[in-house]
Design a protein that fits this description.
Blueprint (H helix, E strand, L loop, with lengths): L2 H17 L4 E17 L2 E19 L2 E7 L4 H15 L36 H16 L5 E19 L4 E18 L5 E10 L8 H14 L9 E7 L5 H9 L3 H5 L20 E3 L22 E5 L2 E2 L6 H7 L11 E3 L6 H6 L3 E13 L5 E12 L2 E14 H4 L3 E4 L9 E2 L3 E9 L2
Parallel strand pairs: 7-12, 11-16
Antiparallel strand pairs: 1-2, 1-4, 2-3, 4-5, 5-6, 7-17, 8-9, 8-11, 9-10, 12-13, 13-14, 14-17, 15-17
Length: 440
Amino acid sequence: MTSKESLELARWAVEQARRQGAGQVSANVFSERSVGVQIREGKIEQLQESVQNGLTLGLYLNQRYSSHSTNDLRRDSLGAFIEQAVALTRYLAPDPFRSLPDPKLYAGRQQRDLNLVDPGYEKMTTPERVKRARAIEAAALAESKSIVSVTASCSDSVGHSVKVHSNGFEGERASTSFSLGASVTAKDPKGGLSEDYSSAYKNHLKELPDLAVVGKDAAQRALKKIGQRKIASGRYDFVVENRSGSRIFGALVDSMTGAALQQKRSFLDGMLGKPVAAALLTVNDDPFIPAGAGSRLFDNEGITARQRVVIDKGVLRTYYIDNYYGRKLNRQPTTGSPSNLVFSLGDKNLAAILKGVQKGILVSNFIGGNSNSTTGDFSFGVMGFYVESGAIKQPVNEMNVSGNFKELWKQLVQLGNDPFPYGEWRIPTLHFHDVQFSGL
């Protein structure tokens, strides 16, 4: 289906729902194709391809709301589908806060190409995907005879969607994505096993790292963990590798949402304009980064994307409030979720930061655990390395880091100059001082 055909179908679906009695309507017509391959022991372990076309309909009728989806896009079938969807909505309980966004929230949308589509996407073939995954596996296996297992993957997708609202919004989005990955298991001389992974994701194929880099990185990570064990409980400097920082910053974002605020489960409630982190931390939300993983011109509700400051020198400057919870809170909606988060940077990379650590734990992976969004308390399982006098002494595992996010982010003493390049959140190495770890 062409862009024009998708737009015409979405408009038609909106009009049909209005004729059936819906007061407001949203329609999203989408298509997606994804292909993925996994290689293990030189053989294809998994090969998947999926193609999906569909329509999602949001209906607002006398303060009642429902959402319906179908993959049958024939208009004769859709007519009956829409009629039944509207009829079912009449039986729901009313919710006075259900409505499409105020049309003024659609205003000011930028007209620019965010470069989210790789024009050469169609040149990627399945034999090439298999070849690339095998190259990743070979690079990992070549690192050591101690490696006993490698699972290598190569996947990509292309998607297109058109969104139409009955109160004036129309928008289109298209994107491609490519990803590489390797998961490696190495054997400990004492009979134990160590595992780790490496992965990369980009909208454009040429922006991915070399295949050998992914395989070697995963292998070296697994090999460095041979001999991992617990160390004594105590307070240590807490250094978080850039690829894992989203686990702890995500707890802040979760507590910034309108849902968390309205349901009284946010430790950041009432903190707008107040310090929530050390003054060295500034975080900007930028939806307009060319080829950015989270780049967009509008969000899932059609609200126009805007650059915004999330944290300014430690001070909280915004919440993520969608249309529904904005109405419940009687606040102006901002947007329901982050786009690209860009962090302030320091002047040192991970290696240089570790040289200044006298007694600390470098966390490369978080394993399980939980956090309380109401109080800010957290406890996470971690894997990584014990650092003493600026040098890595040994790998560690089966330890927990715990504390309270209201205190932790004020213990941030250093940011790296190495933002993670593969994802929506460009988080650098994070260095916190004097944090509680539990082990032996």
